[in-house]
Amino acid sequence: MQIRKRFALTAAAAAVGTGLAFAPMASAATSASSASQAAAASCAYPYVCFYKGSTKTGQFKDVTSGWQSLGSSKGATKMVNTRNDDVVYTHFTNGETWCTKPGYETTFNSWVVDKIRISSASTC
User: Fold this and answer.
1) Which conformational region is residue 95 in: left (phi greater than 0), alpha (psi within -120 to 50 degrees), or beta?
2) DSSP symbol at 120
3) Pseudo-torsion of CA 105, 108, 114, 120, nearest 10°?
4) What is the pLDDT of residue 39?
5) What are the b/e assignments for 58-82, b being 16+ CB within 10 Å?
6) CA atoms of 56 and 44, how far apart (whole Å)
7) Structural contact between residues 118 and 64, judged by C-beta atoms closer than 8 angstroms
8) What is the pLDDT of residues 10-46, one digit of tens each?
9) What is the pTM of this model?
10) Cα-flanking dihedrals φ and ψ of residue 74, to 5°?
């Protein structure tokens, strides 16, 4: 019985770990690396900025009820949300979406971001 429990726990941990490997990763801008801090510094309030590496590719500030296409920011590797009270939803080419809290930064791993929607909601 003990072996069966150990196998079930190992399989569950592997499944969770695999799923997280493909999801965007969110991290607080306040505890980010120096490269991330430089990106956040180049993104003024009240903008949401997109970056490919360390190059800013676009910024958005309008709250919308629908999706906005990213244009040259499609495929960005990182997004910084400098807004104080608004969440940001990002849409990916695989159909998935991700919500970033106010004041946070999101790093996109293998997913390709293609749309944005800034919401006046303060929580995801």
Assistant:
1) left
2) S
3) -30
4) 52
5) bbbeeeeeeeeebeebbebbbbbbb
6) 12
7) yes
8) 333 333 343 433 445 543 333 344 445 555 568 999 9
9) 0.71
10) -60, 135
Torsion angle of alpha carbons 45, 27, 21, 95, nearest 10°? -30
Looking at residue 41, what is its pLDDT? 64
Residue 17's H or E segment, with its range, is helix 2-22
Residue 8 token pair: 């079930």
Tally of residues, the chain: 124
- Residue labelled with tokens 């997280």: 20
Q: Which amino acid is present at 3? A: I
Mean pLDDT of 47-73: 96
Token code pair at residue 59: 């910024």
d(CA 67, CA 11): 37
Question: Which residue matches tokens 């120096």?
Answer: 34
Closest CA to 55 of 34, 74, 70, 76: 76
Question: Which amino acid would we find at residue 82?
Answer: T
